[in-house]
Write a structure and sequence with these properties.
Length: about 190
């Protein structure tokens, strides 16, 4: 995989499926990103978020990484998708997007637990990607700071974010569900 970037300019899901299964990758606009193994703190926070959402949301499905999310352009097939991500946690309300091995189309909520090694990618590349594909809510969770930054789609763009600390309560756009931030970081 080291020299793949030199051989082609852009990759698709079809290419992605051929890569070494020992490593996890994401594709953003055709560019591959190797995913590092998460820390214990990261996994604890991901688990807490998953269970908070799973126990609160009744009409939608909640998923946890690793599960591929294919974000496709208008007439693009799944195999031609240049955008394949594995969000830490995501919520899908349209069950037709859920296939046997992946989700195709934008989830309603995507949660990324930010680590020092992913902060730039989460704040720039993924932010732009999720906005482009109209993910309704994008959460950036920072375990070390114990904060959650929530971006919500307004007129096809992310508006000013809401930032929550341990004393906050996030009200989701779907089902008016309330999540206590302290539960995420316990």
């Amino acid at each position: 995989m080291k020299n793949i970037a030199k051989m082609q300019v852009s990759y698709s899901y079809k290419d992605y499926l051929q890569w070494d299964e020992k490593h996890r990758y994401e594709l953003i606009e055709g560019v591959p990103y190797l995913l590092a193994s998460p820390s214990v703190l990261h996994q604890r926070v991901v688990g807490n978020i998953y269970f908070s959402l799973k126990n609160s949301i009744k009409e939608c499905s909640v998923f946890i990484s690793p599960l591929d999310v294919l974000l496709v352009e208008n007439n693009e097939s799944a195999m031609d998708s240049k955008n394949v991500v594995q969000p830490d946690v995501f919520v899908v309300c349209d069950e037709s997007k859920i296939k046997e091995k992946y989700c195709i189309g934008a989830p309603d909520i995507i949660v990324e637990v930010v680590s020092p090694s992913t902060a730039s990618k989460d704040a720039i590349e993924k932010f732009n990607l999720y906005e482009k594909f109209k993910v309704k809510e994008y959460w950036m969770v920072r375990p070390e700071e114990k904060t959650v930054t929530v971006f919500r789609l307004e007129n096809d763009r992310y508006g000013r974010p809401d930032v929550y600390d341990e004393n906050g309560e996030i009200i989701l756009l779907i089902e008016n569900v309330k999540i206590k931030v302290k539960d995420i970081f316990e």
